[in-house]
Amino acid sequence: MPEIRANRTHPLDELPGELLMWVLIVSELLVFGAGLAAFLAVRVTDPAGFAEAQAHLHRTGAALNTLVLVTSGFLAARALHLRLDARRTAARLHLLAAMMLGAVFLVIKGAEYADKAAQGIGAETHPFFMFYYLLTGFHAAHVLAGIVILGLVAIWDDAHNIETGAAFWHMVDLVWVLLFPVIYLLA
């Protein structure tokens, strides 16, 4: 007897955006998760050294960057709703604002890196800083990629493209929301 499939959808049909973007997002989350797990594992071997190294970080700047990225994520999500309401110009402006906040994030992060360099702190200074530069630098590369993606979906701005680009941008937000407390706050 043939199977009746009327009105049934596959669970993957419910994913916002593109399936391949979700494959990328999951793989990136696994990479960042492995990096954080390694950071925490090495931290256990030298908690005092990690605490002293962490004291050189700018928690205020990192907290500001958290606010910047969360706000930009809101703007990207809002852009999708605006586009669905046929408010194309407003959607594009929200995407542009999200991109600009991504650039603000990179400027703040760059200032922090410059300050570390001025202090003579590099990846070889302590294992903490090796992980710090590796994880935050890899994240900064994703912020830059996200800015490009948001720019592209602002140009080719159908709702599906915005949804796909916003999904990537939310992954960038999520990763920072995980990095911030583990690297900057965990005592």
Oligomeric description of these chains:
single chain
Number of strands: 0
Q: What portion of residues belong to β-strands?
A: under 5%
* Number of alpha- plus pi-helical segments: 6
| Mean residue pLDDT | 92
Helix content: over 70%
In short:
This protein has helices at 19-45, 47-54, 59-84, 88-118, 127-155, 159-185.
Write the layout of secondary structure elements.
Layout: H1 19-45, H2 47-54, H3 59-84, H4 88-118, H5 127-155, H6 159-185
Helix pairs in contact: 1-5, 1-6, 3-4, 3-6, 4-5, 5-6
Please explain how this structure is put together.
- The protein contains 6 helices and no strands.
- Helix 1 runs antiparallel to helix 5 and helix 4 (88-118) packs antiparallel against helix 5 (127-155).
- The chain has helices at residues 19-45, 47-54, 59-84, 88-118, 127-155, 159-185.
- It has 187 residues and is mostly helical.
- Helices cover 79% and strands 0% of the residues.
Kindly list the characteristics that best describe this protein.
about 190 residues, mainly alpha, 6 helices, about 80% helix, about 0% strand, elongated
